[in-house]
Amino acid sequence: MREDEYGEWLPRMRQSYAEDMIGNGGVSEERAQAKASDDIERLFPGGQPSPDQIVFVIEADDQPVGELWVAERDADIVPSLWIYDVHVAEAYRGRGYGKAAMRYAEEEARRRGVGDVALMVLGGNDVARSLYRSLGYAENAVFMSRHV
Fold it and tell me: What structural domains and CATH numbers belong to the chain?
């Protein structure tokens, strides 16, 4: 992603992240907005990516159709290329762009010498979970809760 594209993408990402926590994570709107703001500022201080963050624009026929956001992380003992987000604009969904972006993340991990690709998906996001499973991703943990 070019530097000039961050100005449009970052606020949209922050809002999408908050909405995902609200809709699929059961987080209150106030808490989700605060967490999204805090996390985005930590990863993109002053609106610019920290050295570990890489955001790619997904293109089809020279037109942007989505974004792929990755970073190298040490998840416990195993280093991985962490997929923070893969997003395809609604008008372009169902055409294989999400799957292609996931494959690109795997290629990026190989180029970097990182043996694992990992991500987190909130409950309720069945479309994303189905995509990840179709590509051979396995669930390593499931967090469950019940509001009482």
Answer: 3-134 (3.40.630.30)
- CA-based Rg of the chain, rounded to a whole angstrom? 15
Burial 9-19 (b: 16+ CB within 10 A, else e): bbeebbeebbe
What's the rounded Cα separation, in Å, for the pair 121 and 110? 22
Give the Cα-Cα-Cα angle 2, 49, 96 (nearest 5 degrees). 60
Longest dimension (CA), the chain: 50
Beta carbons within 8 Å of 126's beta carbon, 6+ residues apart: none
Over 90: is that where the pLDDT of 125 sits? no
Q: Which residues pair with 73 in a beta bridge?
A: 80
For 32-69, letters b (16+ CB in 10 Å) and e give: bbeebeeebeebbeeeebeeeebbbebeeeeeebbbbb
CA–CA gap between residue 83 and residue 111 (Å, rounded): 15
Quick: pLDDT tens for 76-85. 667 899 999 9
pTM exceeds 0.85, yes or no: yes
